[in-house]
Design goal:
Chain lengths: ~230, ~240
């Protein structure tokens, strides 16, 4: 997907900001100040409103594009803070967007995929718990799962390492690498159901990070936002 | 603008049904079902006290038997609606405002937007429906408990059979009283849900704003409910 930010102004965050890139595989927005990438990802899903300027997706204004393609089928954002709805259980949190995205599909597919992804991240907590009963790292793991279950065209990940300790960072790094399209051929055999495994790989990822880890093996391309920071 | 957005989302409730149904049910559970013991206790006390005071007063004129007129006028017409509304403000108004305020602080509104779910439809309209349905049912429940409790208490003073008591009571309870009671509970429910949601959603970023907004929601709701109660009663009075 071709993504263009043209003369974008967002009060206090972006000032006449321009960015143009073609999202392929895993694109890393390297942002040492951890502000620009977060704003770019938030603006793509419509969480942050633009004061001026426009965002073009494949040459079409974002709003027009999302009238033709649903938001959930296009983007799914993993917030840096691992946000979940406090009024719902973990299971209901995972099901809410899935139900909206795949309203007519078989619910058992959701359960199967959820079990696979939970096993992969070694999550064995009760799904009937409220998010407040989980650690912040567990919540963020579930947010990765929630986004992946939606099978968006582009999965947006804001600051993947935030809230994680050293071991958890390793786990989430492996998780992202395992689900990137580059690894489809090698990793799909690890899954009990290869058809299902193929569905759990992402064509495109857009990662906002200040961490050098994500500019190494995993990235298909790196967009350096250092100059926009200062 | 908030009200306009709520009405717009309310008209699209059918479209949002799959995401808001659970929230409506939980709101009814909290506002309605869990309030039944408290409302029942207050209704029983009010029914007994009204009978006690009414019987003592009317008995001076040898008319103690007519206490059911007071039950209809005072309880069905006035007290059931306003007392139920005050209980709902104290329990659910504060809870809604606090919950929504904390959700704003925790960026949960942004999460909903990222799912392409309108926070107004999912959170506010669901609570509006839940509170209105609960308030109508609670008011009806209040009336039943107060009247039956009142009859039970009246047995201390007079040997009036239940069927005779209810027959007299129902002859006084005309349609306008029922309409007024239902209308008040619907309007009070709308006011409480809108005020609590508006104040909760008005929190910006700081968690210290949450209790401030909750207090404001309670104060404004109480004032608005009382003023509307007077206005609706006046409308029925001049049209009678």
């Amino acid at each position: 997907m071709d993504i263009i930010f043209r003369n974008v102004v967002i009060d206090g965050l972006l000032n006449d900001f321009n960015l143009q890139f073609s999202s392929q595989g895993c694109t890393v927005l390297y942002d040492p100040c951890e502000r620009i990438a977060t704003t770019v990802l938030s603006a793509l899903v419509g969480v942050t409103e633009l004061d001026k300027g426009e965002i073009l997706l494949d040459g079409i204004p974002r709003e027009e594009y999302l009238k033709q393609h649903s938001l959930l089928s296009t983007f799914s954002l993993v917030f840096n803070e691992g946000i979940m709805l406090s009024n719902l259980s973990v299971h209901e949190n995972l099901l809410l967007p899935w139900d909206k995205r795949f309203a007519t599909e078989d619910y058992s597919a959701f359960e199967r995929e959820l079990q696979i992804l939970m096993a992969e991240l070694k999550l064995n907590c009760g799904l009937d718990l409220r998010p407040a009963n989980l650690s912040s790292a567990q919540r963020k793991f579930f947010c990765f799962i929630r986004s992946l279950l939606l099978k968006p065209k582009i999965m947006l990940i804001d600051d993947p390492y935030y809230l994680f300790n050293k071991n958890e960072r390793k786990m989430i790094y492996d998780f992202i690498v395992n689900h990137s399209i580059k690894n489809t051929a090698t990793a799909s055999s690890d899954y009990p159901n290869s058809n299902l495994a193929n569905e759990l790989f992402l064509q495109e990822m857009l990662i906002g990070s200040s961490d050098d880890d994500f500019t190494g093996e995993i990235a298909t391309q790196i967009i350096d936002l250092t100059q926009s920071c200062y | 603008m908030f009200l306009e957005e709520t009405v717009t989302e309310l008209l699209h409730t059918k479209h949002n049904k799959h995401v808001s149904f659970l929230v409506v049910i939980r709101q009814i559970q909290f506002t309605g079902v869990e309030a039944l013991p408290l409302i029942g206790f207050i209704a029983l006390a009010i029914g007994c006290l009204t009978i006690l005071q009414g019987y003592a007063f009317l008995n001076n004129f040898g008319q103690g038997i007519w206490v059911h007129i007071i039950l209809v006028r005072v309880i069905v017409g006035e007290l059931s609606g306003i007392i139920t509304a005050l209980v709902v403000i104290a329990r659910s108004g504060t809870a809604i405002s606090t919950e929504l305020g904390n959700m704003v602080v925790n960026r949960e509104m942004q999460l909903l937007k990222s799912f392409d779910i309108a926070p107004m439809g999912y959170l506010v309209v669901s609570r509006l429906l839940g509170v209105v349905i609960s308030l109508v049912v609670l008011t009806l429940y209040f009336n039943i408990i107060a009247v039956v409790g009142g009859w039970l208490f009246a047995q201390f003073f007079t040997q009036l059979s239940f069927s005779a008591f209810m027959s007299d009571f129902l002859s006084i309870l005309t349609f306008p009283y029922i309409l007024m009671s239902v209308l008040k509970s619907i309007i009070f429910g709308i006011v409480i849900a809108i005020m609590a949601s508006y104040e909760g959603m008005s929190v910006n970023k700081a968690s210290t704003e949450v209790p401030q907004r909750t207090i404001k929601a309670v104060v404004i709701s109480i004032f608005t409910v009382i003023i509307l109660d007077i206005f609706i009663t006046w409308l029925f009075w001049i049209s009678a």
